[in-house]
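INTERNAL AUDIT FORM
Audit reference: QA-55
Scope: verify that the stored structure record matches its stored sequence.
Auditor: D.O.
Record contents follow.
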Amino acid sequence: MGMAEAERRKDEKINGVIYDMSPAPNFRHGIINSNIHTIIKQGLKNSICLVSIENLDYRYQPEESDDYLCPDIMVICDRKHLKGGFYSGVPKFIAETLSPSTAKRDRAEKRDIYERAGVEEYWIVSPQGAVEIYYLKDGVYILEQSYILQADKEDEDYNAEEEVCLRAFPHIKMTLGEIFEGIE
């Protein structure tokens, strides 16, 4: 991570209130995002869709305000809504990896915002090894799957090879082990 990167302030604006997102979360957060991003990026080869990682602001109600969030991972397919560092369409997929300072917002305000905006799949990933997958059904998020990684092969609940896929892109699959690879 170069100096320039470290100096870039990240923030989010919800209901006109700016939330500073520095200091950066710990390294596990970045590793997990990178793992998920890499797998999705491979899966989107030759697709019009693209996947962003911690670097694209999402204006979720452009008609009403200039509020924005900066999702950890976001898949977008309608590029006409991309302008500069902003996206104002409806993402196909968003994942947020929890950090101590954002956990409550990721589970409460942001979840509600993504739900209202019509994001059809939202993952909440915990660096401790948990993944919650929400699908939009009739405008409301339903917890579709919930996992806690058990990477010990000797354990009867071993599930590191359990596969999850993206609802809109069923060919994009990853195992729980791959999501959390390298955080030890």
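Auditor finding: record pair retrieved intact. The chain is about 20% helix and 35% strand.
Action required: none
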